Amino acid sequence: MITTFMILLAVFGGAMLSVQAAINGQLGSQVGVFKSAFLTFSVGALITALLIFYFEPKHSLTLLDVPKWQLLGAFCGVPYIVVMVLAVQRIGTAVATVAVIFGQLLMSMLIDNFGWLNNEALPFSIERFAALICLGIALYFIYSSSKTMQPKAEKVSDLKPLK
């Protein structure tokens, strides 16, 4: 039961990343990529600080006590946000999101297989390889179908109000 809940929670998290990418793509085209990224991290930091203050249980170690390489994970979100703000404007939310998931799947399989970053090694299998191939095929079809679509003449947001 808990595994199913965690999978559903992860699917929800992924859905929110797609919503975030679509919104940030629009915002980035109007105010700039880095301002959009700054807003994302500023609001995220504020909300996370409140969650820590009210809900985080006490731990035996602090951020200053852990191995320093573990702090590098904080830098990994910046390229994601910046790349998505740029990519969504040019290739659309679906293509950008599937491409990110493809990259996540590929890297996570390497981390699992080799036990990198102190993770338990989970050997590569033909099933995992098939999943990677299927996602690559999905990326190809989503990308090629979006290339063939004709752009709409006007979006609702482009229409001028009547006087």
TrEMBL record:
Listed transmembrane segments: 37-57, 69-88, 94-117, 129-146
This protein's record includes keyword Disulfide bond: no
Superkingdom as given in the UniProt entry: Bacteria
Alphabetized UniProt keyword annotations: Membrane, Signal, Transmembrane, Transmembrane helix
Signal peptide: 1-21
Keyword flag Signal: yes
InterPro entries membership: YdcZ
Record-given protein name: EamA domain-containing protein
Organism: Acinetobacter soli NIPH 2899
Lineage: Bacteria, Pseudomonadati, Pseudomonadota, Gammaproteobacteria, Moraxellales
